[in-house]
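Hi team,

Filling in the usual template for the complex we talked about on Friday. All components are listed, including any nucleic acid strands or ligand strings, so the model treats them as one assembly.

SUBMITTER: L.P.
PURPOSE: interface mapping
COMPONENTS: four
RESIDUES: 1288
SEQUENCES:
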Amino acid sequence: MTTSEALSEATLRDYIARFSNWGRWGEDDEIGALNLITPACIARAARLVTQGRSISLTLPYDAFGPQNGGFRPNPQLLTTATGTDHLGGAQDPLPGGWGPAKGFGYADDTVILPTQAGTQWDALSHIFYEGRMWNGRSAAEVTSKGAAHNGIEKLTGRIVTRGVFLDLATWKGVETLEPGYAITPDEVDTYCADKGIAVESGDALIVRTGFMSARRAAWGDYSGGAAPGLSLTMAPWLYDHEIAAVATDTWGVEVRPNEIPVFQPLHLVSLVHGGIPFGEIFDLDALAVDCREDGVYVFMFVASPLPITGAAGSPVSALALK
Amino acid sequence: MTTSEALSEATLRDYIARFSNWGRWGEDDEIGALNLITPACIARAARLVTQGRSISLTLPYDAFGPQNGGFRPNPQLLTTATGTDHLGGAQDPLPGGWGPAKGFGYADDTVILPTQAGTQWDALSHIFYEGRMWNGRSAAEVTSKGAAHNGIEKLTGRIVTRGVFLDLATWKGVETLEPGYAITPDEVDTYCADKGIAVESGDALIVRTGFMSARRAAWGDYSGGAAPGLSLTMAPWLYDHEIAAVATDTWGVEVRPNEIPVFQPLHLVSLVHGGIPFGEIFDLDALAVDCREDGVYVFMFVASPLPITGAAGSPVSALALK
Amino acid sequence: MTTSEALSEATLRDYIARFSNWGRWGEDDEIGALNLITPACIARAARLVTQGRSISLTLPYDAFGPQNGGFRPNPQLLTTATGTDHLGGAQDPLPGGWGPAKGFGYADDTVILPTQAGTQWDALSHIFYEGRMWNGRSAAEVTSKGAAHNGIEKLTGRIVTRGVFLDLATWKGVETLEPGYAITPDEVDTYCADKGIAVESGDALIVRTGFMSARRAAWGDYSGGAAPGLSLTMAPWLYDHEIAAVATDTWGVEVRPNEIPVFQPLHLVSLVHGGIPFGEIFDLDALAVDCREDGVYVFMFVASPLPITGAAGSPVSALALK
Amino acid sequence: MTTSEALSEATLRDYIARFSNWGRWGEDDEIGALNLITPACIARAARLVTQGRSISLTLPYDAFGPQNGGFRPNPQLLTTATGTDHLGGAQDPLPGGWGPAKGFGYADDTVILPTQAGTQWDALSHIFYEGRMWNGRSAAEVTSKGAAHNGIEKLTGRIVTRGVFLDLATWKGVETLEPGYAITPDEVDTYCADKGIAVESGDALIVRTGFMSARRAAWGDYSGGAAPGLSLTMAPWLYDHEIAAVATDTWGVEVRPNEIPVFQPLHLVSLVHGGIPFGEIFDLDALAVDCREDGVYVFMFVASPLPITGAAGSPVSALALK
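RESULT (copied from the run log):
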């Protein structure tokens, strides 16, 4: 119905008016659409685990990640104790008054991790629209001390539900959807019908565009540049289908360049007003191989963010369990 | 049989000789006892999820954690974009050539995270004995660049199995076991018999001493000081029962001071030679409440570390699913 | 004349009205009282260097510094290459396509440095009063990206002038002035008369309370707690004497608790409105020894901050040259 | 005499044998050639300051520096308090029990600084040759805890001497010497004769190739790539002239590619064995302009590194004072 061609800033305001969940789960709510994940959703998801297989959906956190040294550096691992120190006798005696090593040695390290640099969940404090974030709270609550409300730690333990895998790249027979390609409700519906998937309330939508596969060898502008992704018109669809969370293999979930002259409008509708956490830079290639082999595109999705108090996002060890 | 009184450095060498798994899963193995988690273990664990409840076992990562500013600082969250910036007009236009904000605002941040500072898994590269780590590899492989083998990223996706909860503090009717208290096989067996738990190959053992509850309000020397924990005599028990992973609510799993004049000898036997990942600083209080209520002490345990390439450990969002 | 007893919030407003330098050096000025350091000041300072001695005024930047793990951690040094790696053969071949090492080895590291954690200059962007900083600029210019104006980098190269050393602890024959002790203009004038020092326009005032000596072995609440320091009544004195910069061996220059119920009022008058950079946590003990020996309390003071773009402060290798 | 064409690995060994200073200043010495800076050198340098001008030689430390995101990231400034927070009311009351703000606001931040990322001095613990560093100490002393000896903090306060400026780019009438161009003793002698400079014991040599000017707009492989620089044949010259320190506007002082198949051989002779600190990534463009104007190529050089305990290098606010 609505096509990209017809979209405008008016669409954004219309969508916000019609598809907001502010107040739906109370004035104090800080977890948004994750409220849709009921105990029944968790139990139903667990019943999908019959083969006993765990597939990681997380890109390694290291200097070879997709960031190019600008706004967000790649994760840096720095050491404070090493095996070479142990071998060189530098750990005898041990620090901290722990006494002689007598054969004991250890390695230790620190990681500097921009929370949005790799596979990550956006917190509901990550994005604002006209001074407000999820559930109408003021952006003034997100300061240099972090978020007083809606921080990522509120989502810890909450992202356990059925995952529905939209491997659009494989389905369309391409290595990757092209930058600028907008994924629409029609296409998603056709895909689900083709796979025999009935989307249910509380599901997590996991979308593979193939863009990570195509750029993995040489990231270029993978992070921050043009990309395939969800059309703004997916906002009503996500709302109507009561999707709890969305994750993609791109840096920003949405199609880039955006379809209207506002930056990341789907974030503004579905994350800020819908309360749906967005997962970005998920590595879905192993899952794609697995699903091509067994033909099963639904699974138990366990992807709980770290409780980094007040953070705008978190790295995550996301798993598809079958 | 073996009592703490009879333990000596000779015990350590004897245990290493008898309870090593080096070579058991091939010369190239880097995941150790996690090999014991078979597909059947994962499927069996998932069948325990009937009530649809998710309980987080992770302490918040922030400045109020248990580290006291010495060897390992608490996690630090530092901001690169805030809601107050958005409100102050500092994000219009957006960086990166993204153009005018038109109502769009965002928060962003970086976390500095010593990998062993909070709830965490020890990698099999974390501990050495006489120059060697898990599976006989040289400590020389763990340099300032991180671990070439046995790094924490090898364990990502692997820690999904049945969790067996030993809430010893509640069971003994104390707030906490005292520093120096050694948990022995006899006690564990009595507990399991009392709860009707049959430990099985591939299980994860989750041990609550109550020490975190007792120190949470004022950490003091919680990290690095004397603590209750597993006796060295648990090494044969862990081996015989084919335990895949062990986690506790203390900083170092083992009783401190150690029972013999070698630092952390259980690490040397069960982690270095047994290949069992140790989980430390787990927050087990919510789980204790939950288990007291439903009387169910086994659950699906999902606790996959982040794939931080080459790291000696990783924070983790650990979950008990029922 | 004015005594501490008579001070009030009205004094603060009065001082601000009378001792502000806003606009004095033009609307665009970002270096404040450092404008008082003329070429003649620099040349005059250099002429004081006759003995050829350099005395460092900087505390080591390391984990043993005065911060206690709360708001500002001590500096952390983390390694990325070590001599033990070199010895262990881990650097052969070298990274970056640099080829075989052939005997070459190296160490490398990264420091995480809270800019206010140790010996440091406050930037003119460090403090605000009622929404404004030096020269009337809005606090809105200091965001998560740093300071658009008045950042510490503007002061680089500028702090080269005559230093006048007020070693009040030695002069009064005490190890340290006590916390809460307020240094007044009368006392400073008496000291200068006693030492035969005529303070001149563009001088830097270096004040030793002895508080660092007294707390160095066990810092306690040295950082952030009660401390001896300058009285608010020094504000007119600093203005009248055209002092270019002030540094002390305490964490905050001013006496703490403050003399009026406003936090750090001397900062509000002399830094925010006077444009005088404040130097804190300077280590003046070696200088005290040196001056007791030669009786010379004026010297060339070279203490240029690092040009950390937009930072609110900077570590500094401050030198007294004689 | 010796030309690049005739150089070989044998030259390296010959130079090390002939131009080493190990033991020259005692077995315990940790400052190397800085011993050559006598009180007379300092006083002589100060006498050069007649015009009262201070010229910064340091590149800004920020995200726009010469590192390209690989081995060493550019400095990162991260905020912990901002003016926008102050304006947004987020600082009232103040943290730390400091009470109500009453108009007081502040900014604070942390810098993550790879010690070799920008303008910096190499410590005498930065480079090893066959397991040894300056004065014969073992590389085993440089561990994940930093350098037990020869760390950069030993050089704090020591680099105050006469600077001799070799602005070779301007002198030769080029924007920059080309990558691979080796600066030889003959050329340096000719330059000094032309400028009427008599190099003296204890001088610091400041060499401008022009390479930073040429690459500043687009750094490319400035850091780590091919570069103009000192020939290995400068080693005898530096030794014979008793140069205390050398700094250039390139990333590694030496010509790259190196003249012999050993990585950075001049470091191995003159830094490891000669004990001469090397300064890298110095920004010498403002100095070049200044010297072209007044024709004075010698000055007081004050460039004291921060005392970062055990570090392999340090950022520095280097000044030329005239």
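MY TAKE: The mean pLDDT of chain A is 95. The first helix of chain A runs from residue 9 to 18.

Thanks, L.
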